[in-house]
Amino acid sequence: MHEPILDICGLEKTYKGGVQALKGVDLTIRRGEIFALLGPNGAGKTTLIGAVCGLVNPTGGTIAAFGEDIRRHWKRARQKIGLVPQELSFDMFDKVIRQVRYSRGMFGLPPDEARIEEVLRSLSLWDKRDAQIRELSGGMKRRVMIAKALSHDPELLFLDEPTAGVDVELRRDMWRQIDALRARGVTIILTTHYIEEAEEMADRVGVINKGQILLVDDKDAIMAKLGRTEAHFMLASPVADVPAVLSSYPLHLEEEGRRLVYRGGDGTGKGKREVAELAQIMAREGIVFTGLDTRDSTLEDIFVDLVEGKLENAA
Q1: How many CA atoms lie within 13 Å of 72's alpha carbon, on the beta-carbon side?
Q2: What residues does the ABC transporter domain cover (predicted)?
Q3: 118 & 196 share domain
Q4: How many domains does the chain have?
Q5: Is residue 274 in some structural domain?
Q6: 234 with 97, same domain?
Q7: Is there a single domain that holds both residue 39 and residue 62?
Q8: 222 close to 260: Cβ distance less than 8 angstroms
Q9: pLDDT above 70 as % of the chain
Q10: Given this model, what pLDDT does residue 1 score?
Q11: Half-sphere exposure of 139 (CA within 13 A, CB side)
Q12: Quick one: 174 and 216 in the same domain?
C-alpha cells in the first residue's frame, strides 16, 4: 500500500463571526490519482484547498503532505504543491512567459528555459508567450494560471474550478491536459460543480456540503452503492391507490393516478429486474399500461440527493 500523498484528519475552520467553514474533515488522497471534490457554492471546497496550500489557517485538525506535518515542514511541502485558484490573478500588462518564469523563481528554483517552453507548449501557449495577458481570451488566461502552477513541477496539483466560464470545446481540451499531467505522475485534486467533469476525469469522487464530507469513494462504487432505477408506467385507466398486488415495491402515483412511478434498485441491476417483474405482474393482473419509460440515475442525481439530504446513510 503506497503512503498517501495527502492525509487530512479532523480539519476545522471557523472564521471570525462564528461561520464554520470546515467541520472535522477527514480525507486521504492517493499518490497518482485524480480526485474530484464536488460541492455546491459555499460548501467548503476552496477553504479546504486554502488550508492545504497555506492560504487559510485551520482552527483544528492536522494535514500531512508527502508524509510530513505541513505546519512543521511548510516550505518543503509547499514546493511540491501547485495551485490553480478559481480567481484569475496576475499582472495583466505582463507577458505570458515572464509571469511563468516569475512563478518558477518564487519557489526558489533556478531558471530553466527548456522547461518553461515545455510547459507553455503543452498548454498551447508557446505562440502567445510574448503577448500581454490582457490580450488573451478568458480560456487562455486560465491556461496561463495552469502554466504558472506547473512551472515549479509540483507533485500535487490543486485545480479550483479550472473550467469555470470556459466553453465546452476548451473544457474538453483542458481535460486532455489534466490527463497528460496524471500520465506524468502528478496527483490532481479538482474541485468542480460540473458533474460531467468528475465523471469524465476522476478516479475517485468526494462530496462536501456545509463543511462536511458526505461521501468519498470510487466512481463505480458510488454508482453501485447509490445508483437507482426510475420507471414510469402510464396507466390506461387512472387508479386511486397503488394496487395491493404491487404494494411490496417502492411505488407511488402521480398525475392523479394516471402514472405509476417506481424508484428503487441499488446500482447492481436490481431496479431493472424489479421493473421487469412489475410489468409481468401488471400484465397478469390486467393492469393495462400504455407506456413505460425507464432511466438509471447519474452521478449528478446522486450528488443532488446527497446535498439535499435524501441519502442519509451514504457514507
Answers
A1: 6
A2: 6-235
A3: yes
A4: 2
A5: yes
A6: no
A7: yes
A8: no
A9: 95
A10: 47
A11: 12
A12: yes
Looking at the structure, tell me whether residues 207 and 236 fall in a common domain.
Answer: no
Domain boundary among 176, 196, 223: 223
> Which pLDDT score, from 0 to 100, does residue 315 have?
47
**In terms of DSSP bridges, do strands 212-218 and 204-209 run parallel, antiparallel, or are they unpaired?**
antiparallel
CATH code of 19's domain = 3.40.50.300
Across 104-126, average pLDDT:
90
Alpha carbon distance 75, 58 (integer Å): 17
Query: Which residues of 30-148 form beta strands (DSSP E)?
Result: 34-38, 60-65, 68-69, 81-84
Q: List beta partners, residue 64.
A: 7, 69
Q: What average pLDDT does this structure show over 196-204? A: 82
Q: What is the pLDDT of residue 277?
A: 93
pLDDT at 175: 79
Place of cell 479550472: 162
Other CB atoms within a 10 A radius of the CB of residue 286 amount to: 6
**Position 68 in a domain:** yes
pLDDT at position 2: 64
**Domain extent for 165:** 6-223
Alpha carbon dihedral 231, 236, 239, 242, in 10-degree steps, equals -30
Convert the pLDDT of each residue in 260-303 to its tens digit.
999 887 766 788 889 999 999 999 999 999 999 988 877 777 77
Instruction: Give the whole-number percent of the chain exceeding pLDDT 90.
Output: 48
| Residue 66 CA: distances (Å) to CA of 72, 84, 202 | 12, 20, 21
